Structure formats: C-alpha cells, structure tokens
Amino acid sequence: MKKLVIFDLDGTLAKSKSAIDAEMAALLGQLLTVAQVAVISGGDWPQFEKQFLANLPAGDQFDRLHLLPTCGTKFFHFDKGAWVPVYREDLSAEDKQRIVAALEAAFEQAGFKPERIWGERIEDRGSQITMSALGQEAPLEAKHSWDPDFKKRTILKTYLDKSIPDFSVRMGGATSIDVTRQGIDKAYGIAKLRDRLGIAIEEMIFAGDALFPGGNDYAAKEAGVDSIRVRDPEETKRVIETIIACLG
Fold it and tell me: Which of 66, 75, 154, 247 could make an SS bond with 34 (beta carbons 3.0 to 4.6 A apart)?
C-alpha cells in the first residue's frame, strides 16, 4: 500500500504558471484523506502559494501535505497555522554568477533568438537558478509552441553540462531549465521526505510530466520511487481518482 503520493506542479497539477483548477483542488482534498501528499516543483515558494495553496479547499489536512519548491532544494511544512521552512539549500553569490553566465552563453551559442521575450528570462530562486526561454511572463500558447519535444532544451543542457559540470541541470515546465547544486534535486527531496516522515521509498508513488532523462522529474524515478508519467493535468486527475479508489 502506498502511503505518500508525490506530484510535480507545472504540467502535472496545473498548466504552466497557472493555478490548479477547482476539480484538481477537490481531488487533492479527497486524496489527503487517504494518504499523505507532497509536491516537488522547480517553482519557488511564491509560485506554490499562488498556484497551489490559494486554491486548495480549507480544512485541517495541511498536516498531511508537504511542499518542496525549487526541485527539492527547499522544504516547507505546516506548523501552528503557518507554513515554515524545514531547510533551504541556497547557492552562494559566486555560484549564482557562474550559472547565470553559463546560461546566457549557452543560449547565445545555440543561436536561439525568440522574436519576443515576456519579462525576466533568468530568475534567481535562492537555491536554484531558472531560465525561462521566453521569459517568466510568457503566455501559455507561446510556451507550448517553443519547445514541445524538448529538443531545444536538450541542446542547451548539453552546453551547460560541459560548462558547469559541478551543477545539476534539468529541464522542466514548458520552456524552463533549472540549475541546482550537484546532488540537490527531486531525489534529494524524496530522501528528505523518507527520513522526515519515516515512509519507505517503496511506499511512495510519484506523478510528473518530465519523467525522462534530463527532465527535472527523472530524479524521482532514479531514486527508486514507482513513477507515472502524465501528459497534462487532465491525465493527472484520472491518476488521482484511481489512487483514491485503491487506497479508499
């Protein structure tokens, strides 16, 4: 029997940078009555608050919910009515400068020149540097058409793996590349969940849309967690319904 269900956020529970919808929120509320739930995403804490927490049904289930922003480099739990950090693995100023320079050089070398950029392209998330190829505020239609098969970001990752080999480079969302310290990824977050909750890897299940080599969900599969690759939030809803039926 599975005791912990772990999800990615963007592309899995919600469309990129969008809020979870009412049906998803209701299903997650039901899931929390039969299992503990964790969300591990490349997004930072403000994104979790806006996309996820603000849309969940009110109740006392938050003590069964565990949130890990920036690919598991941060861990928040609910304590005495507030979300508080368990840990955060922030990068040094020098590391951040190296990563930003490498991202900019990789984009230049690959020759990718989008016709338009919406907002900042490179974001400092403290424990992670994220590049959104079209900018943080790009509309969904533009995002989904830029790199639907991950080929462009695979090229960028190849450059980055050579230029900053001491960091972990993963693809996530619709246009993003996430860079963290080597060894600090979703597998790291899953190990923290195992140790903190006392739940064995075999008692966990993970669902994500980037469960392929180089994807930022793949580390969960590498950690030995039974994993389900989903196409989009609609497919995730059907997965959640199945899990509820099995555990309930």
Answer: 247
Measured distance CA(18)–CA(20) in Å, rounded: 7
The Cα 196–Cα 203 span in angstroms is: 14
Q: What is the pTM of this model?
A: 0.86
CA distance linking residue 159 with residue 157, whole number of Å: 5
Strand order in the sheet with 82-88: 82-88, 74-79, 65-68, 36-40, 4-7, 204-208, 226-229
Using DSSP, state whether 154 is helix, strand or coil. helix
Question: How does strand 4-7 pair with strand 36-40?
Answer: parallel
What's the CA gap between 29 and 61, in Å, rounded? Answer: 8
User: pLDDT per residue over 204-245, tens digit each?
Assistant: 999 999 999 988 899 999 999 999 999 999 999 999 999 999
Query: Per residue in 175-199, pLDDT tens?
Result: 999 999 998 889 999 999 999 999 9
Report the C-alpha gap between 232 and 211 in whole angstroms: 12
